Amino acid sequence: MNQHDTDIIIAGGGLAGATLALAMARTLPQLRVTVVEAFPLSPDALPDSYQPSYDARSTALAWGSRLIFEELGLWQRLSEHATPIRHIHVSDRGHFGATRLNAADHHQEALGYVADNRWMGLCLMRELLKTGVVWEAPAEVTDMQPLPGGVRVTLGAESGQRELSARCLVVADGGRSGLREKLGFRVNEQAYDQHALIANVSTSHSHDYTAYERFTDAGPMALLPHGSPTRAGNTAALVWTLDNHALDDLLALSDDDKCQRLQQRFGWRLGRFTRIGECSHYPLTLKTVDESVRPGVVLVGNAAHTLHPVAGQGFNLALRGLMALVEQFRVATQRELPLGSLPVLKDYQARHRQDWQQTVRFSDSLIQLFGNHLPLVTTARDAGLMGLDLLPGAKRWFARQAMGMGGRRADIRTPGTLSTEPGNHD
Ligand SMILES: Cc1cc2nc3c(=O)[nH]c(=O)nc-3n(C[C@H](O)[C@H](O)[C@H](O)COP(=O)(O)OP(=O)(O)OC[C@H]3O[C@@H](n4cnc5c(N)ncnc54)[C@H](O)[C@@H]3O)c2cc1C
């Protein structure tokens, strides 16, 4: 077991890679974990305090993700700068259908939360500093070769190249994963021919802790509550999906005109849009892999699946996958099975598959359904939204998906929840 330089190498220390490292340190402290991160950030050079900025990028965390962060002992700290989502309002511009989900109906204080990515990163790094996880940055994993019972990974850094052997390589290098391509994983790609425009906006009315998902003829948009409501106004995090032409049009406008355009599309539920911050945009593609494992290698986070951001499911799905992987490693360690062996990794893949297939279908069908302007489909979706309001079972199902509670997830605290019975191991 100790013939390798380390046990697990995580390529990529973004939200997925850093969370996995922490979950490994919490659950399997006897294993040696090395994170290799291309960006020059290090746990030793962290700012002492956090100053939220108006232009901070944020993530909608489902209720299920809060439970995971609680298990990791991180929630209390994270919640200091997380805005609760107490209501979700889904509507279709120009049509009568609408539905509203309330946390109180599900006996919970929130359906989810909105947290700044930078804040989540800082909380994770502060915790990692207290563990034995080794952080290599700036450095890149540039190649990987299989070894008996493990892998040999090539690290490129300013100081030169070196090799590191491990029992398993976890690829967490993001949606444009260079390693996934290099290692020959087959990617299914479905371009939506759209971009997501991201910006924070100020509104004259209180967000009242409501997340709005609105489907318009110019593309779906989400407005998430961001920060506490104040008398001076509120901030909401905007994710607006636009086709390429509409995006170019919008970006050419002044900030005042952008607010006005947003007002036309969104309406007045949040009062007047008074300010829009720095706008960034991303091309939208649904990327999935049929196989996320190879002997000694497993893909996680956006490297395994990149979803449409309007449904706010990408990181939440990734988190559940990370916990399933940690549980798989725990069971394998208990049974003295090789961590990177194909049967162990395939068992993980099989357990996570139902969750990711369901989540991908949920996000994709929302976009397909609400992106369609055929009268029959619009009528059907209005009926669907009304049906959600009228049928408690359907609404509960929708709420569970939105809260990240729709998929099966292994409990990292309960020993033996997985039935790993691998046959031959490499
Ligand atoms: C516009 C937008 C809005 C979103 N909103 C939501 C939301 O509301 N809710 C939600 O659940 N999800 C959301 N998502 C998805 C979410 O942002 C991602 O799932 C999340 O960031 C996890 O990313 P990751 O860690 O897998 O990849 P990344 O964040 O891309 O991190 C990859 C890391 O790997 C490093 N790296 C790259 N190559 C190498 C290499 N060869 N060696 C070493 N390091 C390397 C990079 O420097 C980077 O730090 C959104 C995504 C987008 C684009």
TrEMBL record:
Pfam families recorded for this chain? FAD_binding_3
Residues of the signal sequence? none
Q: Does the keyword Cell inner membrane apply?
A: no
Location of the FAD-binding domain: 5-332
Describe which pathway this protein belongs to, using the record's wording: Cofactor biosynthesis; ubiquinone biosynthesis
Superkingdom assignment: Bacteria
Under SUPFAM superfamilies, the record lists:
FAD/NAD(P)-binding domain
What the entry lists under InterPro entries is as follows: FAD-bd, FAD/NAD-bd_sf, UbiH/COQ6, UbiH/COQ6_monooxygenase
Q: What is this protein called?
A: 2-octaprenyl-6-methoxyphenyl hydroxylase
What organism is listed for this UniProt entry? Marinobacter iranensis
Q: Which UniProt keywords apply?
A: FAD, Flavoprotein, Monooxygenase, Oxidoreductase
Which is an annotated GO molecular function term of this record?
A: oxidoreductase activity
Q: Is Hydrolase found in the keyword set?
A: no
Which E.C. number(s) belong to this protein?
1.14.13.-
